[in-house]
Request: fold
Amino acid sequence: MSKLEIGSGNKPKEGYLHFDIRSNVNADVIGDAKKLPFRDEEFSEVYSRFFLEHLLRKDARITLKEMYRVLKKEGVLEIIVPNIAYFFKLFLTESGQKKEWALNKIYGFENYVEDHHYFGYDEETLKNFLTEAGFREINRISEEEQYLHLKAIK
Ligand SMILES: C[S@@+](CC[C@H](N)C(=O)[O-])C[C@H]1O[C@@H](n2cnc3c(N)ncnc32)[C@H](O)[C@@H]1O
Reply:
């Protein structure tokens, strides 16, 4: 299979090889995304949804380089993270449940130890990280304000 999902958790995307750090979520391969146990240029696509924000930013930089390494030339990365700019705004302007939701999206839901958020991204920050890792043609493919859904090419 030449499509890899990283941080698949309890919502694995169909058609992908599933990789996660937790052993209790039925991933195909278990490990830490900072050091992916795959060969260079093994995959045509890498997909990751609500995962990168669970890493310290120094580890996110390492992991994006790992994603780049395992992608074939011209391979596609599709990545989705919460848009921290949206949730900061919500936190400042809302109260009650919406404010609580913003806090969960900023800091993580804390349902298990890997469920904390260690960093947050707005569009500029995520694009800079992706550029630094070597990606090009980085584009937002959904205008949904709450999330950053980006596609990038190796
Ligand atoms: C919030 S869940 C997202 C799950 C799924 N992708 C979704 O969209 O619902 C984040 C996942 O990333 C995984 N994770 C956290 N740190 C990781 C790491 N260093 N390497 C691999 N997976 C990790 C967690 O175990 C968890 O399953």
